[in-house]
Amino acid sequence: MSAGAVTRWARRFVAASALFLVAWQVAALAATVSGIGSAGGVPRQTRVALAVHGFVLHAVFGKAYSLVPSYFDRTLAVERAPAVQFPLTAVGAVGLAAGPLPGVPDLAGPAGAVLWAAGAAVFVAALAWTVRDNPTGRETGTSDANAERRPVDRVANAFVPVVLAYLLAGAYATAAPHLGLPGFASLGFARTAHLLAAGTAALLVFAVGFRLFPRFLVASPPRALVGVVLPAGAVGPALLASHLYGGAWFRAGAALEALAVLGFGAAYAVLFGRSERRRVGFYAVLVGVAAGALGVLVGLHFAFSGTGFELVEAHFRLNVLGFLGLTVVGATYQFYPPTVGTFPGASDRTALVSAALVGVGLLGELGGALAAADGAVVAGRASALVGAGLFAWLVLGVFAER
User: Fold this and answer.
1) Sign of dihedral through CA atoms 227, 231, 232, 234?
2) What value does the mean pLDDT take over residues 248-277?
3) Residue 37's pLDDT is what?
4) What percentage of the chain carries pLDDT values higher than 90?
């Protein structure tokens, strides 16, 4: 399989991610309309599976196959890994999402969990084998023209193995409850989501982001923040997953994860301010880090006050749809510019509207949750759905024309 074939598979992962994003927003809106705070016709486990196992991690898988080997000065050693993994994780995520729904065969959830975990194992094995002789990423593939970036690149690379370890733990925790396996079987889907969303996706955003965004923006991040964000982002998810909703270790994990997200947001804001480039994807990421700041502040509130747990859903959506989601959206628009398309709506203006609708929708949701105003939550989720639909339209349209 050539590098071009790997790129084509990366597009399929990103396309699947966009479809999972729309499905998640449909499910979230349906659950809200049927009753705020209740499962309604769409259980929370279904929404989490669509959001984390489907949307976020398929975007992570697709771009990691392209970026991580090059960042370690290697080429993907197991070239067929994307083709083997894709049906496993895509079908697995569908099974995980469908399993809790009424009327779905009992086999759907366990089968989905096993398939998804197997696909994640393929991904980890392929990347681990690729970097086996450069495990800490000291060889960065950084050109001599960017030699001043090598110290940051090496530090960022060193945390990629931690990302893979979190993914393995999250994959095991995904399958364990369905198979009666020991260890993580008691974690529950909320803790598993922290392993995968914070430990895998967010930490990879930090590690890859400190390499990717400085090059996109042609600027340099504050090195002091790099040294704070990456260790905090590596330790925080483990404490959150193992001590969720109680005790001093839970508060420590919340504080560390907040430090990581806020620090990354500050670093990105500095990069954005130092850059002369103003592209639509950069604004989407800026909105994303702002949403992440709100999300971790909400998390700190119920971690340290012991109250406000009615905001857990807002916390989840601000972090997963806001921070992770809009960062994915912004990077996707940079990799696959809408302006290369000739189909209706293929423009930077539509892309900017899509990100703005998600950002405004999240703000409306948070305000509605704080004020116990169901109508504002419904309006916010409707706005996010339209924004997600526009994003999927642009991405799938560009891929179809290519």
Assistant:
1) positive
2) 95
3) 43
4) 81
- Residue 17 confidence (pLDDT): 98
Indicate the pTM of the whole model.
0.94
Across 112-122, average pLDDT: 97
- Give me the domains of the chain, ranges plus CATH numbers: 278-402 (1.20.120)
- Kindly report, residue by residue over 283-341, the tens digit of the pLDDT: 999 999 999 999 999 999 988 887 777 889 999 999 999 999 999 999 999 999 999 98
